[in-house]
Amino acid sequence: MPGCKTYAILFPAMLQDYLLLAVLLVVATIFPIGGLITAFIIRPHRPGKIKGDTYECGLETIGETWVQFRVQYYIYALVFLIFDIETIFLLPWAVAYNQLGLFSLIEMFIFLALLLGGLVYAWRKGALEWI
Amino acid sequence: MVPVANYLILSAVLFTIGVLGVLIRRNAIVIFMSIEIMLNAANLAFIALADAKGSLAGQVFVFFVLAVAAAEVAVGLAIIVAISRQQGTIDVDEINLLKW
Amino acid sequence: MPTTQELIAISPEIILALWALSVMFLDLLIAQSRKSILAYWSLLGLLLAGGAEFSLWGREEILFQGAFVQDNLSLFLDLVLLLATGLSLLMAKGYIKDLEMEHGEYYTLTLFATLGGMLMAGAGDLLIVFLGLEVLSLSLYVLSGFRRTEPMAQEASLKYFLLGAFASGFLLYGIALVFGSTGTTLLGGIAVAITEGGLLGDPLLLLGLGLLGVGLSFKVALVPFHMWTPDVYEGAPTPVAGYMSVVAKAAGFAAALRIFLSAFLQLAGDWTLLLSLLALLTMSGGNIIALAQSNMKRLLAYSSIAHAGYILLGVIALNSWGLSSVLFYLAAYGFMNLGAFAVIVALRDGEREYLALNDYAGLGSRHPLLALSMAIFMLSLAGVPPTAGFLAKFYIFGAAVQAGYGWLAILAVLNSVLAAFYYLRVIVIMYMREPAGQVAKMTHSPALALAIFLAVIGTVQLGLFPAAVVELAQASLFPFLGS
pTM higher than 0.95 for the full model? Predict the structure, then answer.
């Protein structure tokens, strides 16, 4: 393609990679905005009290939208955080899986069993209850 | 290719920011965040040096540091939340029952 | 893939880890009124792990490409750690029930903390040192705040946590710099890299070693990194304070021995001078501030700081006599210090603790046996013959003299004289002063009595018949200084 050649002269190899990213960014921005604009033009416009309400999983909303969450909520965050971080040990294992052999599979199951044990413990201690 | 010295300088700067944060700030959460900056400065140094030395040991170390830091967050936040509920403050200058 | 041999060699650690997990899950099944079963269950686990240690004695196993070492040094230190854990659990059983904090997590966390200490004692890689230290510290942060609605316990926990995490940051950065200089985190590999790469004066390496030293100094509470110790000991539950004073210190010195002996022996000229300065500051600082204390737990906190200073002398001496005396000192210190804490635990009326020095007035006539035990522990801590504390000090000061640190040994002896003043004051108060106002009561419990009895036996036994333990300690260091 002759076009590509001009780009190659203008941009060194590394920048060309960034150009692709930039194109992706532009497309990714235009696509949803375009959808919203199209919908705005063609949809009927009939506002009402129920339609203007805050959407909350289809339920009727109770009280203000700006509520403070109880401080106990941080327990969910902590439980999530621990399990989230543990997955970083899964990634290198999965990448090198083919070279590691059977024992690493057993090892990973031991690791996952320990994590599951932690989850069961948190559950039985009531850390997953909605307070 | 960025030379390894630049990474080390950045990590030293981050580490210093963390140390100063611990020494200067009085809010327990902010002190804790400063400590996390220190740990991450060490992580950055580990990764840069592992690359420079061509040794994977440094990168493996970072995985473990991340896991340990998460556990530290869990313990630390639990302690800080317990204090804030009971005493209504997390200013380390106001938490001073124990003195010699 | 680990071989069967490797798994056998690391079996004490595996047993303890599984046991801690089993306690955690048993706790979910056992009703609140029967939680004390968990104490016996945990003690059984400690016994099993100790038995595994004994059966491994004499084997020099290098496991997992050098990451872990199971030799006599780690086995000796592990036994000290397990013994101290057992004593502290005996103390804790009734205590945590009376103070309404009898949760299974107490035992789980104690066992995990001991596991962390054992990992540090056998570490062959800085990664294992770091992980062991964190397992130990994270458990201790929670344990020291175990009375979670008590403001003093919360404060102790917060202080310990913030300063401990701060110290971990230094330690970690030090490890990163050492890795940057030598290209490895294996302790043996570091020594090889220093020799082969001619890294003796490498600034990166020296800076890394310095930061590593600062991190460890925080953990074993050397002056000027000791500020947290008295506050944490005072706020933490008494059995936990006793546990920390022995296990955290023994584990910290274990890691220091491993790191300095295996990795940085060639740099000894650089760090011994610095350490002797730290030892001097630590001994003097701890003893002088201890003189002014009127709270028993704070007194023992400053005394534990001073003892860390004495122990450091053996590390500095760096000869086989000095290093085996470090091990002997840790064993003796474990008995006498936990014993003293056990007496504090005993002197309580249900929930009400008697911590002031004046509460001990008249103890000699009201509870003669308890007072006698406390007197033995105080004499031993002061270093009066024929107790364990005397021989421990004698060995360690002798080693310092032999290694050419006569001036340091003289200053250490002067320090012990100073220290004797506040230890003997406790005895004087117990026997010669009449109680004013409220009289301190004593709680009777078989487990606690057993703990005090064992501590007395250990203190006297090591003082009168030290040969067996000294031989074990010397055998532990053979591979390092056999030549």
Answer: no
